[in-house]
Amino acid sequence: MTPWDALAELYRKELNAGLQIDWDGGIVAWIGGPILSEHSALPDDDLYASRVPLGMNHIGNPIRASEVFESHEFDQIAPWLLTEARRLYPKSFEDDVRIPPMSAGDSG
């Protein structure tokens, strides 16, 4: 799954999320939430605030979780986005089809 697939899934679930690329700072993946500053996952500093999308700084920031990835970690973005979204918004994933793990006696 690509980051774009993960973002499309989060969009279908009506969750705010995004990516921002900073050529010397990596790729910032974020997941949003309530527009209340006390729920912000970002530290209150100018360096980090400069690496999130315009208008989403520490004042009224809807970001609840964010992570910076290096360019060689691109394949880790989608799993992170979905894992964090499930952690932050478990009710949004309740209707997902769950495939039970196969037991040792099952044949595939």
Can you put this structure into words, describing what you see?
- There is one protein chain.
- The chain is 24% helix and 19% strand.
- The longest helix has 12 residues, at 77-88.
- Helix 1 (3-12) runs parallel beside helix 3.
- 19% of the residues are buried.
- The protein is globular.
- The two termini are 23 Å apart.
- It is an alpha+beta fold and 108 residues long.
- It has a three-stranded antiparallel beta sheet with strand order 1-2-3.
User: Structural class from helices and strands?
Assistant: alpha+beta
Strand percentage lies at: 15-25%
**What is the tally of beta strands?**
3
Strand order of the largest sheet: 1-2-3
Name the helicity range.
Answer: 10-25%
Unreliable residue stretches: 34-43, 45-50
Total of DSSP H or I helical runs spanning 4+ residues: 3
Descriptive terms for the model:
single chain, 108 residues
Put the structure in a nutshell.
By secondary structure, the chain is an alpha+beta fold. The protein contains three helices and three strands. Residues 34-43 and 45-50 have low confidence and may be disordered.
Topology:
Elements: H1 3-12, E1 17-22, E2 26-32, H2 46-49, E3 63-69, H3 77-88
Antiparallel strand pairs: 1-2, 2-3
